[in-house]
Amino acid sequence: MNIDIRGYRGTIEDLDELLNEIRGFPCTLQLVDARAVAGSDHALHGALHALRAFERGQNISSDPGIEICLRIAGIRQISRALELLGVRKGEMEICAILVDCETDVQEFLDSRFQRDDRVLEPDEDYLRSLYGLGEEVKTVGVENALIERTTMLQVL
């Protein structure tokens, strides 16, 4: 299994068209709002937990990309996970999670968006507010608090 986490900046003009193009690839390609991700380790941790959930038959969604969103968000509600992490029309910072994708997928993303891994650097104040993080942040930090939520999702 090969998981690649990439950061991009760009404008999504037609969301439906973009999603249809993504569905055409024979791999899992999930685009999420990079602002809602606490770094590449957070995204990777969520992707690994999502894929393991499928292996164990404990997945919440039937779609691996949606499962990745659920795991990154650390919640079970698909609508809420998409509200937090979903891409939308307009200018965006994007975290792309590629699972077992060939170079044509990277080329597609590179042709549509500007590669910029700096978008994966977490805005801790924004993340604390977005996820309603509390006292645990003082002990473990924002990234580790969100990674812990992902881990706890499988226990619950």
From TrEMBL:
It holds the Pfam family CGI-121. This is KEOPS complex Cgi121-like subunit. Belongs to the CGI121/TPRKB family. InterPro entries: CGI121/TPRKB, CGI121/TPRKB_sf. SUPFAM superfamilies: PF0523-like (SSF143870). It comes from Methanothermobacter marburgensis (strain ATCC BAA-927 / DSM 2133 / JCM 14651 / NBRC 100331 / OCM 82 / Marburg) (Methanobacterium thermoautotrophicum). The lineage of its organism: Archaea, Methanobacteriati, Methanobacteriota, Methanomada group, Methanobacteria.
